[in-house]
Specification:
Length: 590
Amino acid sequence: MSPDQVPAGAAAQRGAGAHRHRQASHSHDLPVLPEAVDIFDTTLRDGSQQEGLSLTVDDKLRVAEQLDHLGVAFIEGGWPGANPKDAEFFARAPAELRLGTATLVAFGSTRRAGVKAEDDEVLRHLVKANTEAVCIVAKASALHVSEALRTSKDEALAMAHDSVAFLRHHDLRVFFDAEHFFDGYAEDPGFSVSVLRAAAEAGADTLVLCDTNGGTLPHDVEHIVAEMVAGFDTQVGVHFHNDSGCAVANSIAAVRAGATHVQGCINGYGERTGNADLSAAIPNLSLKLRVRTIPEDRLERITPVSHHIAELVNTAPNPQQPYVGAAAFAHKAGLHTSAIARRRDAYEHIAPDLVGNGTRFVVSEMAGRSTLALKAEELGLELDSEALGAVLDTLKVLEHRGYHFEVADGSLELLLRRATGWEPDYFELESFRVIADHDRQHLTEATVKVRIGDHRILAVAEGNGPVNALDSALRSAIGPHFPELSGIHLVDYRVRVLDTGTGTAAVTRVLIDTTDGEVVWTTIGVSENVIEASWQALFDSIVYGLLRSRSFGRPAAPRPDRRATPTDAAPTVAAPTEAARTEAARTEER
Ligand SMILES: [Zn+2]
């Protein structure tokens, strides 16, 4: 049976027409380009299938808040029938989650074979989840019906129909996920379409075509989605996985073919290679196709929300992520940077501030004078040509020794500031000492002696590594003089042994990421001694933090691409890699 013969059920009309369509501008074949699509985020359900991603109920509530802050239409919160954590999430959500733009959706599957819908546990859990909308998944591939479900095609159709009808009877808005739809359609289109028809006739609001194995390519998506849009009056949505690297491209192709509902995950989280990355799909649809997605004035929230959620789910943001990555608008080559100084749009596909990101000039020994001049300008520093030349020489020497200022923006800024004659005078280090004991707890002890004005302070602290112990001792020593330090935390610590190729001893490079809840900065230390390298990176980390927080010489506005939290959300700070466990002792004398 051909899909354009598919009759649409009377109840299926409700979902249709939610978004009017207008003529597609670039294609003769594609019927219409929708004016708007509904963004459906499934980070809390499908996205949390990602390896290594484990969210508590509190994490889930906070991720949902961020998604709502971004302005997605639907948030799939989890599978209340499948695990107690998701059941708790839906139980707490009504009281603890105040959603402004988003509707919460509970996920489940169709009734089991041979069981009445009203007797099915999963469907009953869905009703009890107390949401306005639910999403149920059904097998839309003949192969999966016979092999995985081990039932007949007729029963599979009845399962889809009965389950949707049951949920509609409870006045729920029903999204119908047609699992394995694209693969099933390639093998047995008649069956896959009849599954959609069963759901539409039972009153499903949205028929979601799922590329469960993620192997479909955009040209196939375009014609299959166009056929379904033409064949059904019910709203058609899509759900892509990224196994062929095409999840975002497929989502765009589907919208061009008339789909008005796009599922995906912020930052492309998900099993295997992930789901369609909404952080790229949303700007592509909004800015390139001019199709409404989230409210237009919230598009600039997408970079901070992407980074904030990365922090909530405890994964490092991918700097190369399109639109929202820290490197998305970073320019390194000398030729580019001098050209971009003249024409901002010469090497950027959009204005970065549209998505809350920013242009960044990456400085390294490879970069020319113009890159460095731009960087200084970005920081609001005045450096004459002689000073610039001196900084460039210093950079070259340091990078030869193993420093890598491209990734250490905090240390680079301190270097540039020093070139203007500035010297940090918050405290003066007299000495430090680190002792690593081979006891059962593997604790490291650090002693730090510093001077602040006339005060000489000695502090001792323990930690589970040299950075942690030094950080604790230094904070213990100078913390009472600088209360703002309590808001500054180390978030990551990386050590790399470098092969300098000079035949001398190996050199260690230490990078420390630090945040004050508003921005993240990276500092660097390099030495043949890991403790010394750690100290250098830590010293810069603390000095940069104090510089930021003091009225004196407050650095330029935080770079949006490194913003740790959205402007009006509560700051969240991940625990340092070396967990703090300190018993600090401190003495002060005049
Ligand atoms: Zn999926």
